[in-house]
Write a structure and sequence with these properties.
9 strands, alpha+beta, two-stranded antiparallel sheet, three-stranded antiparallel β-sheet, 163 residues
Length: 163
């Protein structure tokens, strides 16, 4: 989490207004601040990033953080964490990890910055968890989604080391 200490008061910088205002060449929707966000139509069709984030979350994150970002006995509910965590802080924690120590327990989030199965999909994960955090998407697998476009595929292949 990002905290600004000022006179003993900590202020959390949350994810802000999730309204999608523009779409970039890879199909990623951005909010007014330029952060990745979700786009879900009235008929339940989700953008590619939300769908991909769902798949990636359940491939790499749910073991510790529980199904659908709901948390577990040893890892926090990311659905709740994104209510106060900024996009930049999310990227930092996923890439570098985190260690929280208290008198009662020690929690360690490993660094995933060198794991292409996570690092190449951080925006996808953020978008899915942002939708979960805002209750814009429930606990079900998205049934309908936009197709992955060629620019996304090109970036994905490059990140994964494919030629």
């Amino acid at each position: 989490m990002f905290f600004v200490a000022s006179g003993g008061i900590a202020i959390a910088d949350g994810s802000g207004d999730p309204t999608a205002v523009k779409q970039n060449e890879t199909g990623e929707w951005l909010d007014k601040e330029g952060n990745p966000t979700y786009k879900i139509s009235a008929d339940g069709n989700v953008d590619w990033y939300t769908y991909s984030g769902y798949r990636r979350y359940h491939s790499d994150c749910h073991v510790c953080h529980g199904p659908d970002g709901m948390g577990s006995t040893y890892a926090p509910a990311l659905k709740d964490s994104l209510k106060t965590m900024s996009y930049a802080d999310f990227l930092g924690v996923v890439a570098s990890g985190r260690k929280n120590i208290s008198t009662a327990q020690e929690n360690v989030m490993p660094a995933f910055g060198d794991n292409p199965n996570v690092a190449c999909y951080m925006d996808d994960l953020y978008v899915y968890l942002r939708a979960r955090s805002d209750d814009a998407w429930g606990r079900a697998r998205p049934g309908k989604h936009e197709d992955k476009n060629d620019a996304y595929t090109k970036n994905e292949d490059s990140c994964m080391g494919k030629k």
